[in-house]
Write a structure and sequence with these properties.
Blueprint (H helix, E strand, L loop, with lengths): L13 H20 L4 H4 L10 H21 L16 H7 L5 H26 L17 H27 L18
Helix pairs in contact: 1-6, 3-4, 3-5, 3-6
Length: 188
């Protein structure tokens, strides 16, 4: 399946299925936003203020927030502390218009790579049942499993947004990237 490297296993462990579903959504999202210039990343449809560039920045922040802040109780860290980040979803969407496509792609690609490393470390430490640092109002701690499910949900919602916006940009449609697809702009 090397031509479809993003496909989750047909049968596998809970970890393999969960990570496979997340990876497929990440790849589908990345394909939907791939290869655009600033104008393409700033297209809006209807009354919405959501752009593909804003989605790149928003999901990059979600990756780092999920596995630094929520999972470990750490500050969000770089590159966010050096780029003016505020814990306000509107900031990501508004400030993305000031970023170049290369910056936005690198921001997302880097955040996903950091998340993969953090999740692998957390799985080695305690598996899917590892309690997160964050607490619910009643004092309970969600598990790593719950955080991964939350991120799958976040990607599902925003990949749908990206699908509609990308079609408005240049007509690109489809559920999955074509066989053998690789991102055209990524961190080296």
């Amino acid at each position: 399946m090397s031509d479809y490297w993003w496909e989750p296993p047909l049968a596998g462990s809970e970890v393999e299925q969960l990570l496979g579903a997340l990876e497929r959504l990440r790849v589908t999202f990345r394909w939907k936003v791939d290869g655009l210039d600033s104008a393409g990343l700033q297209v809006r449809i209807g009354a919405s203020s959501v752009t593909l560039g804003g989605l790149l920045k928003h999901l990059a922040a979600n990756e780092d927030y999920m596995f630094n802040v929520k999972l470990r109780g750490l500050p969000i860290g770089e590159p966010w502390t050096g780029n003016g980040w505020r814990d306000d979803n509107d900031w990501e969407f508004k400030s993305a218009a000031d970023d170049s496509p290369e910056e936005l792609y690198a921001l997302w690609d880097g955040a996903v790579e950091r998340s993969r490393e953090r999740v692998a470390a957390a799985l080695a430490e305690g598996g899917l049942d590892l309690p997160a640092h964050i607490t619910w109002p009643d004092g309970r701690h969600p598990s790593l499993r719950r955080l991964l499910c939350d991120l799958v949900e976040e990607y599902g919602r925003h990949t749908g947004h990206a699908d509609l916006i990308r079609e408005a940009v240049d007509g690109r449609t489809g559920e999955d990237p074509p066989a053998g697809w690789r991102p055209t702009v990524s961190v080296q």
